[in-house]
Write a structure and sequence with these properties.
This protein has about 140 residues and is α+β, with helices and mostly antiparallel strands. It is about 20% helix and about 40% strand. The chain is built from two helices and nine strands. Strands 1, 2, 5, 6, 7, 8 and 9 form a seven-stranded mixed β-sheet that branches. A two-stranded antiparallel sheet has the order 3-4. It is globular, with a radius of gyration of 14 Å.
């Protein structure tokens, strides 16, 4: 599942959970490396060899980033083909518990009102904004 980027739009009533990712150098074998700037986004990330599918990927990534399990609703899914990978987003919920930010990957994690996704001034990755908006449309909210 290496060529997948799986994300979850975690909902709690009218709130969404976003993470502030650290700026980092991204190295993809056979491709030119690039700097990924620090912006807000949906928890998740790139697949690894041991992931069985994109749901395994997003559950593992959320656990690594914030220390909680994610419950994924497979009914609400969006998928986009990028140049060399597939970007997949789901609606889900976070397990009860204390959020423990992984400082190696994440600077912060917070609950925001859903409307933040429609505020063009809010510093979120464009692809995450579009994916989250599409997921909310599918949900009918």
């Amino acid at each position: 599942m290496k060529n997948i980027d799986a994300r979850v739009l975690a909902l709690n009533n009218n709130l969404i959970f976003l993470v502030l990712e650290k700026e980092k150098e991204v190295i993809i074998p056979g491709k030119e490396s690039f700097t990924k700037h620090s912006l807000w986004g949906m928890p998740g990330g790139r697949g690894e060899d041991e992931d069985g599918d994109e749901i395994d990927t997003v559950i593992r990534e959320v656990k690594e980033e914030i220390g909680l399990s994610a419950y994924i609703n497979e009914q609400f899914r969006v998928e986009w083909q990028e140049k060399d990978y597939v970007r997949v987003g789901f609606i889900g919920e976070l397990a009860k518990g204390t959020i423990r930010i992984n400082p190696e990957e994440i600077l912060d994690g917070k609950w925001f009102p859903r409307g933040i996704l429609y505020d063009e001034r809010f510093p979120i990755y464009l692809g995450h904004r579009q994916m989250a908006q599409e997921l909310l449309r599918k949900l009918g909210k």
